Amino acid sequence: MILVTGGAGFIGANFVLDWLAHSDEPVINLDKLTYAGNRENLASLAGDPRHLFVRGDIGDKALTGRLLAEHRPRAIVNLAAESHVDRSIHGPEDFIQTNIVGTFHLLEAARDYWSALADDARTAFRFLHVSTDEVYGSLGKDDDAFSETHRHAPNSPYSASKAASDHLVRAYHHTYGLPVLTTNCSNNYGPYHFPEKLIPLMIVNALAGKPLPVYGDGQQIRDWLYVKDHCSAIRRVLAAGRPGETYNVGGWNEKPNLEIVHTVCALLDELRPRADGQAYRQQIAYVADRPGHDRRYAIDARKIESELGWRPAETFATGIRKTVQWYLDHQDWVRNVQSGAYRDWVAKNYGERQS
Hints:
There is one protein chain. The chain contains 13 helices and twelve strands. It is of the alpha/beta class. The chain is globular.
């Protein structure tokens, strides 16, 4: 059995679904169910005895301690995080509490549990911490991509909180010997992505006839990773990664944001044309840039390939087509997550940026 935290969110739910599609090993799924956590993401697992959902906070050490003592998992996969840069700019406190304080309490619970295990179980146990490439800061146009030895230089409250959690995980290995693994991934996209992030927001707004807000000049470059490829990478690192090591996980897909928006528009033109016959690209609206917006991220994923034999299965062309089609096929899911709170957030974040 493994314990997955944040398993009702975007990456977490995809990971739980992926895990149980490839294995009969049960999952304890601990999620606080904040705005981006959604039990509907896990609807296909209703009644599945391999999946135990527990609503709770990783910062509740007593709860995590009870779960560990009762279920005796062989690994913890920590996917619980506040992860939206814009939200961290408007309100950083939740990011500090979840990403730093919450990770600390989870590490403490894990250390107590691991220390009491029998020798063989202690040797086999793993704590896998899922992080982001944003901890490395911003790259210039011609700079080498982020490697695992690149220094942490976060530029937003979100990335700073994730960098702090990375340092805590590393320290628990160095100081206490806790067998940890860390993955730093590039921008994920795919099914169940909450529509505040770039790709799902463009799809949802396009279909609703709303403006497609593009920050600044749209030339901010990101590496894009299909979420199911990320899930396979986590499984591989958990199975064969060396304790204490960090593995960067990327899709080998560096693209500017504006190109992503154009690609989404072109796919919608093909798969769900506008009633008036016009191109979705006409809905693009440039808005004021995000404060401190990092210009470029790029992942050097050669280590995970050379040491663990992992490479992404999807190209961006195949992954983005699957993603757009998923949103077209799951309009009920989209409607259900667009609560009043979501609409208020979008109005607040993008309304003040209109230019």
